[in-house]
Amino acid sequence: MATISIVAVHGLDNNSQRRIIGLGMELQRLLRSQGFGSRAECRVLVVEGRVNVAGKTCVDPFAHFEPAGLSFAVDGVLWNYREFVYLAMSKPAGYECSRRPQYYPSVYSLLPQPLATRGVQTVGRLDQDSTGLLLLSDDGQFIHTFTSPRKRIPKVYEVTTRYKVEDAQVMALLHGVELHDDAQPVEAVACIRLDEKRLRLTVTEGKYHLVKRMIAAAGNRVEALHRIAVGGFSLPLSLPVGHWMWLESPELELLAQRG
């Protein structure tokens, strides 16, 4: 099992942390909240001496620590205590956005186990053959905001088509195309032809296979689909495919932008 090192908060040494009754959270509960197993499993981690506090072994699973600002390392990997987790992943092709994938590996297999254990979910989905920006979180309100059609959060895609993109197809996407299960035409917020067989398409809805169905309704076919932005946040070019990053306040503010 992993060796866990925790850096003390507010300069308190190990004994001081133990003496303050009611301060923060029990260590076993704190570890559980961060995805390091059940409370019993976290208790074993502590009792067996796998937990260090301020560089010293802590064998008391009931020791209390203030979570806010707490930093810790697992197997040399640094972590911060987080009430909620917000992530961006550069999704590769050939992965399903499901905890129970049917034909391809799950995107959750690309995350460290603690993040998967604590209940992080994809914010919407990308098909297994689609790539690009995928948001993940365990904050229900955040997930609702970025999946609700009423919020009209713009999502930007680069689309590679099977056939040459005609002017009439661009105009159809901008003015609205009819989908079989929708009484109202669905419009693209923006549609820019990048070259003969590539478009940059912005939509504000999140219906099933929406972009592929819109392109088909306009008279073409999607060969490749890559999401490059949500709100005002663009997938960083520096983020390798198959890797993820924490979303902090600056990125979350960009995500909330609608125009």
TrEMBL record:
Protein keywords: Isomerase, RNA-binding
Documented EC number(s): 5.4.99.-
PROSITE patterns assigned: PSI_RSU, S4
Keyword flag Isomerase: yes
Domain Pseudouridine synthase RsuA/RluA-like, chain residue ranges per copy: 86-217
GO MF term (any one): RNA binding
Superkingdom as given in the UniProt entry: Bacteria
Pfam family, one: PseudoU_synth_2
GO biological process: pseudouridine synthesis; rRNA processing
Reactions catalysed according to its record: uridine(516) in 16S rRNA = pseudouridine(516) in 16S rRNA
Recorded family membership: Belongs to the pseudouridine synthase RsuA family.
Function: Responsible for synthesis of pseudouridine from uracil-516 in 16S ribosomal RNA.
Protein name: Pseudouridine synthase
Species: Candidatus Accumulibacter vicinus
Origin organism lineage: Bacteria, Pseudomonadati, Pseudomonadota, Betaproteobacteria, Candidatus Accumulibacter
Gene: rsuA
